[in-house]
Specification:
It is a single chain. It is built from nine helices and ten strands. By secondary structure, it is α+β, with helices and mostly antiparallel strands.
Length: 379
């Protein structure tokens, strides 16, 4: 898991001085990188306030889609989930490298557009990935489910599994006007009861016709020959003794069809897997990039709302070092305490009065957004 703090503080005489002061204060506590946000169109104060709320919702949505794409990639990788981290990239860059070197995509999100328009473009990108993921995952899941059902029937309990892989043509009487072969699953603990009683369950059971065709840990599969006219009665009597009559008709065409279907489903899954993984990698990159642009917009809007005009602030990606988060937070709060017009930064959590809340966000005297990259730990 990696944690990053996107923060901004007002420029002193220049943003560079703010940057230098931050680095001096946080030495040995964090790795800092400039978070490059271009000169965006500010618009009106009312528009910024409204956009601030909208961006909060878009932030949650974009992160959610990121997590859905990465989680589904882990599902698709199946027993190779340990490869998930190496597949979660932005282009060829690792997520850490991307966070350290974030650059605004001028071509995709032109800075001449109003902030609201930029947010709408990002929202469309994320929504399209979300929609396409639902479609693609449903198609793959259906195929995977059908294949698993067939494999389960080929290997499961004798009460449910497909018997075509077990029985042979010579196990059955064919083309008889009066006789038919039945298949009965008998619990292993009642094997002796079956062998003693099957001939007398009804009339017209062929003597000594019971043959054990297959056995697993729970059941033995027996073939038995009866006259067709006592089928219903024999079925009822089997049920009373907890012998399970399998509804099965031997048909060579069906046998071949099942094998062909299993082969086809296995082949179709392999064919679908490669393109699906490529789509997931490309679109994780797409939606993660979109999410970080939302973060950049939020930092910009909140900085203008807090620090005023003209635009003069330094945005930074702060990566806390191990076990330094608390100390780093205290250092930053002291460094920027002069920005706190509310006095809340000086109040300990234990000192809050009943009913006094700050919403869902932690309060800081500077602009602060946390980014937690723990996609691999979702699995």
């Amino acid at each position: 898991m990696s944690e990053y703090w996107l923060i901004s503080a007002p420029g002193d005489k220049t943003p560079q001085q703010t940057w230098d002061k931050l680095n001096r204060a946080t030495q040995q506590m964090s790795n800092n990188h400039k978070f490059h946000i271009p000169d965006l169109k500010v618009g009106t104060l009312d528009a910024l306030i409204g956009l601030s709320d909208d961006l909060g919702k878009l932030d949650i949505f974009a992160e959610g889609v990121c997590r859905k794409v990465s989680s589904y990639m882990g599902d698709v990788l199946e027993d190779q989930k340990d490869r998930l981290g190496s597949n979660l990239k932005v282009g060829d860059a690792t997520l850490e490298t991307f966070m350290h070197r974030f650059q605004w995509n001028m071509a995709k999100y032109p800075v001449k557009l109003p902030l609201k328009s930029l947010a709408e473009i990002i929202s469309k990108v994320v929504s399209q990935v979300d929609t396409d993921l639902r479609t693609k995952s449903q198609a793959y899941n259906n195929l995977k489910s059908n294949l698993q059902n067939m494999e389960r029937k080929a290997t499961g309990s004798l009460l449910l599994r497909n018997l075509r892989e077990i029985v042979k043509k010579e196990d059955f009487i064919h083309d008889s006007e009066y006789l038919q072969t039945l298949l009965v699953a008998v619990p292993v603990q009642t094997t002796e009861e079956w062998e003693k009683n099957y001939e007398t369950l009804t009339e017209y059971v062929a003597p000594r016709s019971s043959r054990l065709l297959y056995r697993d840990e729970e059941y033995g599969l027996y073939g038995v020959t009866i006259f067709k006219k006592v089928y219903e009665e024999f079925k009822t009597k089997c049920g009373r003794h907890k012998f399970f009559l399998r509804d099965f008709q031997y048909n060579e065409r069906d046998m071949a069809s099942d094998k062909d279907q299993l082969t086809k489903l296995t082949s179709d899954k392999k064919k679908m897997l490669g393109p699906l993984l490529r789509w997931l990698k490309v679109n994780f990159s797409e939606v993660f990039t979109a999410w970080m642009h939302v973060k950049a917009l939020r930092v910009f809007v909140e900085s203008v709302l807090r620090y005023g005009l003209p635009v003069n602030f330094q945005a930074t990606v702060v990566q806390p070092q191990k076990k330094q988060s608390k100390r780093l937070q205290e250092t930053l709060n002291k460094l920027y305490v002069g920005l706190d017009s509310t006095g809340l930064a000086a109040i300990n959590e234990d000192d809050f009065l009943p009913g006094l809340t700050l919403g869902t966000q932690e309060y800081h005297p500077y602009v602060f957004y946390k980014v937690v990259l723990d996609f691999e730990s979702q699995h």
